[in-house]
């Protein structure tokens, strides 16, 4: 298992969120339905994050990193677990479709570790194989499942939010924390919020 290495090259994809890429690493990825969070909450989150970044220039010490994690990724995931939107992934046929799509190229294009399909979002741990880009894998999952979900629900809708949250796993300890978080995430949907690693 290869984890984030600050001494190795990193590419940074553009977007509203940071998207670091490093060859051979494992990623914690969350992608969500287009209606999974109210726009007012997203606007508030973006404003507060922008202000925090302005007032906390890098490099960040451990206290600042913990504060950032609590204010932004943890709160974002807590909002997802609140169950906003139609929650179409709670439909058993739709959920199975997404689970099968995640598994489809596991062992061919990527290693799929833990994953969880929640009512309005998906968590996964994935390590892309050489010549298979994480962004293209995510696009493939979303494109295929969007088309098939619309067929199942007999509706034409924009299913997925365009941008996903992804994080390069830093260590074996963090990997184990993320695995527990993904396994425990269904408890969060029942009001027992697991702590984001």
Account of the 3D structure:
With 197 residues, this protein is of the alpha+beta class. The chain has a single domain (37-188), classed as 2-Layer Sandwich (Alpha-Beta Plaits). Helix content is 44%, strand content 16%. The chain is built from five helices and six strands, in the order βββαααββαβα. The protein has helices at 39-55, 62-81, 92-104, 134-153, 172-188, and strands spanning 11-13, 19-21, 27-32, 110-117, 121-128, 165-168. It has a four-stranded antiparallel β-sheet with strand order 4-5-3-6. Strands 1-2 form a two-stranded antiparallel sheet. Helix 3 runs antiparallel to helix 4. It is globular, with a radius of gyration of 17 Å. 23% of the residues are buried. Residues 190-197 have low confidence and may be disordered.
Number of domains: 1
What string, H for helix and E for strand, traces the elements in order? EEEHHHEEHEH
CATH architecture: 2-Layer Sandwich
Low-confidence stretches: 190-197
**CATH topology descriptor:** Alpha-Beta Plaits
* Overall shape: globular
Strand content: 15-25%
Mean pLDDT: 86
Task: Reconstruct the topology from this structure.
Elements: E1 11-13, E2 19-21, E3 27-32, H1 39-55, H2 62-81, H3 92-104, E4 110-117, E5 121-128, H4 134-153, E6 165-168, H5 172-188
Antiparallel strand pairs: 1-2, 3-5, 3-6, 4-5
